[in-house]
Design a protein that fits this description.
Layout: H1 5-17, H2 24-31, E1 47-53, E2 56-64, H3 75-83, E3 91-95, H4 101-108, E4 113-118, H5 121-134, E5 141-144, E6 162-167, H6 190-202, E7 203-215, H7 216-228, E8 232-235, E9 247-257, E10 262-266, E11 269-272, E12 296-298, H8 299-307
Parallel strand pairs: 3-4, 3-6, 4-5, 6-7
Antiparallel strand pairs: 1-2, 7-9, 8-9, 10-11, 10-12
Helix pairs in contact: 4-5
Length: 314
Amino acid sequence: MRWNPRQTTFVNRVANTGCCFLLLCVVVLSVGCRERYREDLDYSYGVEQTWAIDEIADGEFVQFESVFWESDDTISLRKLIAGEAIASGRDVLEIGTGTGLISVLCLANSAKSVVATDINPAAVANASYNAAMLCPGQSLNVRQVDPASPGAFAVIGDDEKFDLVISNPPWEDGTVERLADHAFYDPGFHLMDTLLDGLPLHLKPGGRCLLAYGNVQAIKRLISEAEKRGFAVKVLDDRDLDGLQVNFLPGMLLEIRPPTVWQKVEDGEFKSSSEAKPASGDDNGESMPGKTSERDVPESDAAAAKTGVSGHVH
């Protein structure tokens, strides 16, 4: 297996802290225990280290053993969450939550709801713990992904839709030999592809998908695969991709948007374009007198018309 420079940074930071494999109770005492023992949290994992971040002034994040942590991966994403309130009032999904850093930050910045997923059970326990300690009055819905079915939306229901889908996914195609390797390798880029394929189903009209990558080849592949699907791609970074090393930090943020889903209006009912009947009329397609006219409208406008709320989610 190739040694990922992302892993090198991760291991060096752990070694420098001198906090490897401490018992969880020791760390809780050192950072200040906000709550007594909770039966809904898993205290069975050792702790690698603790970290403070600028966006949450009161308290530190705890990193469980085998859970990846590299705060520089998501600097630009955290600025948008804390500085531009992109999660405020939104339903958020984070794919591959790790320590729960991004999900907890969304909760701390007034997200309406946050669902976080991870394939590593230690990460599920870790994110749950950090959310309980740092946002005790809010709820983080953390879901365990089955390694036998590791798709991006494997634990998301078909009817679940989100205003904001975010992820700092693994950057490289490689072999996964242990659960911790899922933070570094995406075999065959299966996670990337299933994420793109699932976006039209799970992203609300006007919603945003923000992905943080720090690998040149992965970014180029993401852009290519998104464009093949007819998605719009925007790189939210001023750096020249071709001038960067293959692996680099801080990570680069990209926004992916599927094409607008159009609907037909027929007799006051909204139907998807694929299900709508052709307009009634003559051979020229003109509407016949006495029939409700059809028109194409974006799904976001259709939803607004149903609820009486106008405008789009930004």
